Prior knowledge:
Blueprint: H1 2-10, H2 45-57, H3 62-69, E1 70-78, E2 83-86, H4 88-101, E3 102-114, E4 118-129, E5 135-147, E6 150-158
Parallel strand pairs: 1-6
Antiparallel strand pairs: 1-2, 3-4, 4-5, 5-6
Amino acid sequence: MAKKARKKASGKSGKTKGAKAKSGKKTKKADLGPKPVKTGKGASAFDIANDFVAMFNARTPDDDIWKKHFSKKIVSIEGGMNQMWEGMKALKAKSAWFLDNNTVHSCRCDGPYIGATGFAVKFTADIEAKGSGHRATMEELAFYTVKGGKIVQEEFLPFMPAPTAS
Protein backbone atom coordinates (compact mmCIF):
# COMPACT_ATOMS: atom_id res chain seq x y z
CA MET A 1 0.00 0.00 0.00
CA ALA A 2 2.82 2.40 0.82
CA LYS A 3 4.39 1.65 -2.56
CA LYS A 4 1.18 2.72 -4.40
CA ALA A 5 0.97 5.92 -2.36
CA ARG A 6 4.58 6.85 -3.29
CA LYS A 7 3.85 6.29 -7.02
CA LYS A 8 0.72 8.46 -6.85
CA ALA A 9 2.58 11.20 -5.03
CA SER A 10 5.40 11.18 -7.57
CA GLY A 11 2.93 11.29 -10.48
CA LYS A 12 4.29 8.08 -12.02
CA SER A 13 1.99 5.24 -12.87
CA GLY A 14 4.75 2.70 -12.95
CA LYS A 15 4.17 1.99 -16.66
CA THR A 16 7.02 2.59 -19.06
CA LYS A 17 7.32 2.40 -22.84
CA GLY A 18 7.02 -1.20 -23.85
CA ALA A 19 5.62 -2.34 -20.51
CA LYS A 20 2.82 -4.85 -20.51
CA ALA A 21 -0.62 -3.42 -19.88
CA LYS A 22 -3.13 -5.20 -17.63
CA SER A 23 -4.49 -7.04 -20.68
CA GLY A 24 -1.09 -8.63 -21.26
CA LYS A 25 -0.43 -6.72 -24.50
CA LYS A 26 2.55 -4.46 -24.96
CA THR A 27 1.68 -0.79 -25.19
CA LYS A 28 3.54 1.31 -27.70
CA LYS A 29 3.73 4.96 -28.62
CA ALA A 30 1.95 5.93 -31.82
CA ASP A 31 4.32 6.29 -34.75
CA LEU A 32 3.73 9.84 -35.94
CA GLY A 33 6.68 9.97 -38.34
CA PRO A 34 6.44 9.95 -42.12
CA LYS A 35 5.82 6.73 -44.00
CA PRO A 36 6.85 5.97 -47.57
CA VAL A 37 4.18 6.30 -50.27
CA LYS A 38 4.15 3.29 -52.56
CA THR A 39 2.53 2.89 -55.95
CA GLY A 40 3.37 -0.79 -56.39
CA LYS A 41 5.87 -2.57 -58.57
CA GLY A 42 6.93 -1.31 -61.97
CA ALA A 43 8.04 2.07 -63.26
CA SER A 44 7.81 5.01 -60.86
CA ALA A 45 5.70 8.11 -61.37
CA PHE A 46 8.98 9.97 -61.98
CA ASP A 47 10.08 7.61 -64.77
CA ILE A 48 6.66 7.47 -66.44
CA ALA A 49 6.18 11.25 -66.22
CA ASN A 50 9.47 12.12 -67.88
CA ASP A 51 9.04 9.53 -70.63
CA PHE A 52 5.41 10.58 -71.20
CA VAL A 53 6.38 14.25 -71.74
CA ALA A 54 9.32 13.31 -73.98
CA MET A 55 7.16 10.97 -76.09
CA PHE A 56 4.30 13.47 -76.36
CA ASN A 57 6.52 16.37 -77.39
CA ALA A 58 8.31 14.13 -79.91
CA ARG A 59 4.86 13.58 -81.49
CA THR A 60 4.79 9.89 -80.66
CA PRO A 61 1.39 8.49 -81.71
CA ASP A 62 -1.11 8.27 -78.85
CA ASP A 63 -1.48 4.51 -79.33
CA ASP A 64 2.24 4.02 -78.63
CA ILE A 65 2.08 6.13 -75.46
CA TRP A 66 -1.06 4.35 -74.29
CA LYS A 67 0.42 0.91 -74.97
CA LYS A 68 3.61 1.71 -73.05
CA HIS A 69 2.27 3.63 -70.05
CA PHE A 70 -1.49 3.19 -69.62
CA SER A 71 -3.42 0.47 -67.83
CA LYS A 72 -6.03 -1.34 -69.92
CA LYS A 73 -8.46 -0.35 -67.14
CA ILE A 74 -7.66 3.37 -67.46
CA VAL A 75 -10.21 5.84 -66.13
CA SER A 76 -10.34 9.13 -68.06
CA ILE A 77 -12.14 12.09 -66.50
CA GLU A 78 -13.00 15.33 -68.29
CA GLY A 79 -13.36 17.79 -65.44
CA GLY A 80 -14.94 20.57 -67.48
CA MET A 81 -17.63 18.19 -68.73
CA ASN A 82 -18.08 16.16 -65.51
CA GLN A 83 -17.85 12.97 -67.55
CA MET A 84 -15.76 9.83 -67.27
CA TRP A 85 -14.72 6.99 -69.56
CA GLU A 86 -13.59 3.57 -68.30
CA GLY A 87 -11.22 1.24 -70.12
CA MET A 88 -8.85 1.58 -73.06
CA LYS A 89 -11.58 1.08 -75.69
CA ALA A 90 -13.58 3.96 -74.22
CA LEU A 91 -10.47 6.17 -74.06
CA LYS A 92 -9.74 5.49 -77.73
CA ALA A 93 -13.38 6.23 -78.66
CA LYS A 94 -13.21 9.55 -76.76
CA SER A 95 -10.00 10.49 -78.57
CA ALA A 96 -11.45 9.53 -81.96
CA TRP A 97 -14.55 11.65 -81.31
CA PHE A 98 -12.36 14.65 -80.39
CA LEU A 99 -10.20 14.31 -83.51
CA ASP A 100 -13.26 13.79 -85.74
CA ASN A 101 -14.65 17.11 -84.51
CA ASN A 102 -11.49 19.21 -84.20
CA THR A 103 -8.30 19.97 -86.08
CA VAL A 104 -5.26 20.16 -83.83
CA HIS A 105 -2.82 22.60 -85.42
CA SER A 106 -0.28 22.25 -82.61
CA CYS A 107 -0.04 20.93 -79.09
CA ARG A 108 2.71 20.97 -76.49
CA CYS A 109 3.08 19.42 -73.08
CA ASP A 110 4.85 21.30 -70.26
CA GLY A 111 6.11 19.62 -67.12
CA PRO A 112 6.03 17.15 -65.61
CA TYR A 113 5.16 18.17 -62.08
CA ILE A 114 5.82 14.99 -60.12
CA GLY A 115 4.11 13.86 -56.92
CA ALA A 116 4.24 10.72 -54.82
CA THR A 117 1.34 8.93 -56.56
CA GLY A 118 1.45 10.46 -60.01
CA PHE A 119 2.21 13.57 -61.99
CA ALA A 120 0.68 16.55 -63.72
CA VAL A 121 1.36 18.26 -67.03
CA LYS A 122 0.02 21.36 -68.75
CA PHE A 123 -1.21 21.04 -72.31
CA THR A 124 -1.44 24.06 -74.63
CA ALA A 125 -3.11 23.38 -77.97
CA ASP A 126 -4.16 25.36 -81.04
CA ILE A 127 -7.55 23.81 -81.84
CA GLU A 128 -10.02 24.49 -84.64
CA ALA A 129 -13.59 23.20 -84.46
CA LYS A 130 -14.39 21.49 -87.78
CA GLY A 131 -18.09 22.39 -87.71
CA SER A 132 -17.77 26.13 -87.06
CA GLY A 133 -14.18 26.89 -88.06
CA HIS A 134 -13.71 28.59 -84.65
CA ARG A 135 -10.03 28.50 -83.73
CA ALA A 136 -8.73 28.95 -80.20
CA THR A 137 -5.86 28.20 -77.87
CA MET A 138 -6.89 25.58 -75.33
CA GLU A 139 -5.03 25.20 -72.04
CA GLU A 140 -5.61 22.46 -69.52
CA LEU A 141 -3.91 20.65 -66.70
CA ALA A 142 -3.85 16.88 -66.70
CA PHE A 143 -3.32 14.80 -63.57
CA TYR A 144 -2.14 11.21 -63.99
CA THR A 145 -2.32 8.60 -61.20
CA VAL A 146 0.24 5.79 -61.31
CA LYS A 147 -0.18 2.33 -59.75
CA GLY A 148 1.78 -0.82 -60.50
CA GLY A 149 3.96 0.93 -63.08
CA LYS A 150 1.02 2.11 -65.23
CA ILE A 151 -1.20 5.18 -65.48
CA VAL A 152 -4.56 4.10 -64.04
CA GLN A 153 -6.38 7.45 -64.13
CA GLU A 154 -6.16 10.71 -66.00
CA GLU A 155 -8.14 13.82 -65.19
CA PHE A 156 -8.26 16.94 -67.36
CA LEU A 157 -8.95 20.37 -65.91
CA PRO A 158 -9.46 22.94 -68.66
CA PHE A 159 -8.51 26.55 -68.02
CA MET A 160 -11.76 28.45 -67.74
CA PRO A 161 -11.29 32.05 -66.66
CA ALA A 162 -13.72 33.32 -64.07
CA PRO A 163 -16.35 35.65 -65.47
CA THR A 164 -15.58 39.31 -64.96
CA ALA A 165 -17.99 41.64 -63.23
CA SER A 166 -19.66 44.14 -65.54
